[in-house]
């Protein structure tokens, strides 16, 4: 009986000690937030739209991402404290869906244990990723999510793990409006907005608020629309001085083509969704005159930016084509993560996020970059102008 009692006492004591040890381990684990790489490599993920509606943009971003990783690794990797670590890229297709984006984020953070993520491309897919980013304490840099509220919580505070390399819609819309006012000297403007996403409607709203002249017409179209003749006919009757078309090159190219064919030859102003060589291919070179759009990257950037010049040369050598804006933004997204890792001297994802928020005057393809309190980039915005299907000038606006 005594032996049994003693055995129970010993067993109970062991159980208490076991619980204590486990509790200690749990407490230690709970205070160790984020992912951290060991050994000689660091995992950087890419949650991107490689198929679906935004697949064209996502594949351009994949090219920029892969070029940056290849070049960084060729130089020995990222300097982390006293050693260099090469990047192991983990690229996943979110299929241009919010559910896919959330699922990819969970896999990259929980299974693959990446220290940082590039992407997604769109605001909707990026927003869907935020809960899992926050849960895992892993930062993400979107090359092109432009909604002003993307990096902010509902209470107005910044999302601690959400960053972007692109300008937000407000800045683009305001800059386009000022250009219409001050350079084109437009008094009457018509707006053709893509209302199938927050991108087009957000840009249109910002333009309206900043333009000093009169908005004589606002009409909408949907992604995938092909025939814009009825909209253009209505605009033609208004005798406008310019047209603002916040949208992507696929629809904007057709709008330009059909407007010129209808005899509407006023300047057409757009946004970075037009900053792609395919714009002139769709519109036709002879129709692509007096076209202006805001963009963070210009094919003329190499004339004043050594980083951009090297990037464009290397991109052409790697892919046998000129570098598009979205490739440049993805490339810079990797550079931002690299800079943050080096500044933090750590692969810990929480420390990387903290360092991303403090980036200051970082040389980049899209211009010397700092990160502001809302996790938006501070750098010059560019307005490209096109004549006969060619970019003939790029004006930097600070």
DSSP strand content: 15-25%
Lateral arrangement of strands in the main beta sheet:
8-7-9-10-11-14-15
Beta-strand segment tally? 15
Radius of gyration: 25 Å
How many angstroms does the end-to-end distance come to? Answer: 87 Å
What class would the helix/strand composition place it in?
Answer: alpha/beta
- Fraction of residues in helices? 40-55%
Q: What is the N-to-C order of secondary-structure elements (H for helix, E for strand)?
A: HEHEEHEHEEHEHEHEHEHEHHHEEEE
- Mean pLDDT, to the nearest integer, reads 91
Largest sheet: 7 strands, mixed
Low-pLDDT runs of 5+ residues are: 1-31
Oligomer: single chain
Shape: globular
Q: Helical segment tally?
A: 12
Task: Characterise the protein shown here.
The chain is α/β, with parallel strands linked by helices and 398 residues long. Helix content is 44%, strand content 19%. It has twelve helices and 15 strands. It has a seven-stranded mixed beta sheet, covered by helices on one side. Helix 2 packs across helix 11 (325-344) and helix 5 packs across helix 6. The longest helix is centred in the N-terminal third of the chain and has 30 residues, at 2-31.
How are the SSEs placed, and which strands pair?
Layout: H1 2-31, E1 41-48, H2 55-74, E2 78-80, E3 83-93, H3 98-111, E4 116-118, H4 123-136, E5 140-142, E6 162-164, H5 169-182, E7 188-194, H6 198-210, E8 214-221, H7 229-236, E9 242-245, H8 249-261, E10 268-270, H9 278-283, E11 291-295, H10 306-319, H11 325-344, H12 349-356, E12 370-371, E13 377-378, E14 381-387, E15 390-397
Helix pairs in contact: 2-11, 3-4, 5-6, 11-12
């Amino acid at each position: 009986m005594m032996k049994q009692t003693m055995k129970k006492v010993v067993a109970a004591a062991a159980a208490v000690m076991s619980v204590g040890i486990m509790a200690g381990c749990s407490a230690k684990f709970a205070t160790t937030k984020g992912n951290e790489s060991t050994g000689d490599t660091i995992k950087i993920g890419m949650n991107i739209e490689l198929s679906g509606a935004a697949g064209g943009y996502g594949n351009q971003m994949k090219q920029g991402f892969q070029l940056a990783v290849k070049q960084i690794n060729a130089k020995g990797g990222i300097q982390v404290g006293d050693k260099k670590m090469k990047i192991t890229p983990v690229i996943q297709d979110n299929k241009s869906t919010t559910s896919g984006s959330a699922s990819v984020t969970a896999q990259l953070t929980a299974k693959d244990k990446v220290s940082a993520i590039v992407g997604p491309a769109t605001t909707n897919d990026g927003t869907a990723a935020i809960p899992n980013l926050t849960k895992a304490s892993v930062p993400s840099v979107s090359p092109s999510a432009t909604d002003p509220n993307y990096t902010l919580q509902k209470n107005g505070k910044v999302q601690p793990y959400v960053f972007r390399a692109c300008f937000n819609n407000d800045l683009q819309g305001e800059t386009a409006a000022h250009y219409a006012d001050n350079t084109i000297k437009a008094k009457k403007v018509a707006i053709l907005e893509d209302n199938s996403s927050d991108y087009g409607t957000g840009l249109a709203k910002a333009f309206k608020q900043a333009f000093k002249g009169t908005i004589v017409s606002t009409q909408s179209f949907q992604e995938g629309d092909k025939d814009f003749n009825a909209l253009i006919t209505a605009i033609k009757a208004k005798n406008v001085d310019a047209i603002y078309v916040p949208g992507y090159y696929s629809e904007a190219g057709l709008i330009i083509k059909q407007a010129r064919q209808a005899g509407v030859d006023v300047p057409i102003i757009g946004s970075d969704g037009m900053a792609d060589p395919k714009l002139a291919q769709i519109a036709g070179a002879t129709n692509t005159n007096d076209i202006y759009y805001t963009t963070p990257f210009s094919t003329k950037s190499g004339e004043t930016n050594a980083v951009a010049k090297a990037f464009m040369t290397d991109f052409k050598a790697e892919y046998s084509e000129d570098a598009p804006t979205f490739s440049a933004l993805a490339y810079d997204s990797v550079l931002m993560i690299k800079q943050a890792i080096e500044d933090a001297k750590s692969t810990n994802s929480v420390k990387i996020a903290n360092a991303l928020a403090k980036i200051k005057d970082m040389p980049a393809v899209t211009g010397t970059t700092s990160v502001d309190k809302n996790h938006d980039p501070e750098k010059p915005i560019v307005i490209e102008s096109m004549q006969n299907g060619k970019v003939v000038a790029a004006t930097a606006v600070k």
